[in-house]
Amino acid sequence: MKLVTNKQNLQGTIVVPADKSISHRSIMFGAMAKGKTTIHNFLRGEDCLSTLEAFKALGVPIEDDGAVIQVHGQGLEALKSVDSPIDVGNSGTTIRLMMGILAGTPFTTVLTGDASLNKRPMARVMDPINQMNGQISGFQHTQFPPITIQGSPHLKPMTYEMPVASAQVKSAILFAALQAEGETVIVEKESSRNHTEEMIRQFGGSITVEEKTIRVKGPQSLTGQTVIVPGDISSAAFFLVAALICKDSQIQLTNVGINPTRTGILDIIKEMGGLLELSEIDEQNQSATITAQASELKSCTIGGAIIPRLIDELPIIALLATQANGRTIIKDAQELKVKETNRIDAVANELTKMGACIEATEDGLLINGPTPLHGANVTSYGDHRIGMMLQIAALLVEEGEVKLDQAEAVSVSYPDFFTDLMTLLPGGAV
Ligand code: S3P
Predict the structure, then answer these.
(1) Are 313 and 234 within 8 A, CB to CB?
(2) Distance from residue 311's CA to the centre of ligand 1 (Å)
(3) Range in 53-57, 348-352, 424-428 with the lowest mean pLDDT
(4) Which of 37, 271, 317, 388 sees the fewest Cβ atoms within 10 Å?
């Protein structure tokens, strides 16, 4: 696909698509709970639709009138076995969280995915859940999908110190802990997104969190709720950065989720001198309008505890750094290597092709800026966030074309990304 290039003066308002993490969990909690769960603003991206279809396959009545989704939960005990493998496509959140949910069922389920998902590490979930008496195994004694979850109705609690900062791993253990008899204690390496903890409370469950220690006593039953999904700050990030790096631009993003475990990018933008303004802050729904405008940027160092708070935004932050004065260091981000693609290599390779001064390291990236970008043939590697980052990069290209291979990957989290971009362009067209 030929990308939009050489644009300045981006203006307008984007209603950011719904949060992917919360959308997945809204279906999962709805399926585990008893009673009706009504979901407003569910993200109709491919990943979340994989979760929806998986729970339908497991016998959960889910109605979708195109606007609102209703999950008629009857508790975990009502899930039904499925004969054939459930294909969850590209979605790491679906497969990993479902391992925790299905660990305690009285039947066996096989979960599989696309070529990228089937190469992603699953031992990080399998090992702790198997310590709880789970019986989960990978394909031919590996840790990779297809994953077989032989339900084991006698899950036992455990104390687990997490070796990686991962909300997916934490959430899978929490889902298993809700089914185990006794108290499970999880100690996080660094605090990661806390949507699962918040939704356990929202659905009537009990959980205590003290700094990095989380305690859940099982078994617990949950009750259906109404969920209003806020916009995804990880999707907003692309247009925030577009506004900051394209001359004379100002973009307003409405209904952006601002859960503090997700807002690392806002802290970094401010540290780099980016001009941001939050308004219409809704404390209860943890959402706000964010306005960003073209800014003079300086480099910074990004590492440590902030990494899980901006892990999915690092590709677009790397692009931001190519336009900042000085050397930006991204470190402690080795988790990027096991995302939808190796995002350290993907970002370094593709932005280098476009003329950026960027180098991959063992745990991050080194970026010297500012550098002008030029045309190139690039690829998303089938990774939605790499694809969207490259389109924002292309806006800076004054000469030459940028052709993006595997552009369709953006549908995983932001199906309307390219059409939303069009509305911001001067004259509203290419
Ligand atoms: C997610 C957690 C993160 C993130 C992913 C969504 C979640 O993954 O990268 O896009 O919804 O829990 P890790 O848990 O692997 O860090």
Answers:
(1) yes
(2) 8
(3) 424-428
(4) 271
Mutate to test the pocket of ligand 1, among 25, 98, 122, 193 (most ligand atoms within 8 A of CB): 193
> What is the longest distance spanned by two Cα atoms in the chain?
64
Q: Which amino acid is at 82?
A: V
111 with 239, same domain: the answer is no
Instruction: Print the domain residue range for 194.
Output: 20-228
Active-site residue numbers?
312
Give the pLDDT score at 430: 47
Residue 3 lies in a domain: no
When the pLDDT of each residue in the chain is averaged and rounded to a whole number, the result is: 97
Cα(59) to ligand 1 centroid in Å equals: 26
Candidate from 311, 334, 339, 344 with most ligand 1 atoms within 8 A of CB, to mutate: 311
Strand 159-161 and strand 147-150: pairing?
unpaired
Per-residue pLDDT at 285: 85
282-318 pLDDT, tens digit per residue, is 988 899 999 999 999 999 999 999 999 999 999 999 9
C-alpha to C-alpha distance for 347 and 384, rounded to whole angstroms: 12
In a domain, 240, yes or no: yes
Is residue 6, in this structure, part of any structural domain at all? no
**Same domain, yes or no, for 211 and 239?**
no
Nearest-CA neighbor of 226 among 358, 73, 84, 101? 73
Report which protein residue has its CA nearest ligand 1's atom 4: 312
Total count of domains within the chain? 2
- Which residue is closest in CA terms to ligand 1's atom 5? 93
Regarding whether 310 and 389 lie in a shared domain, the answer is: yes
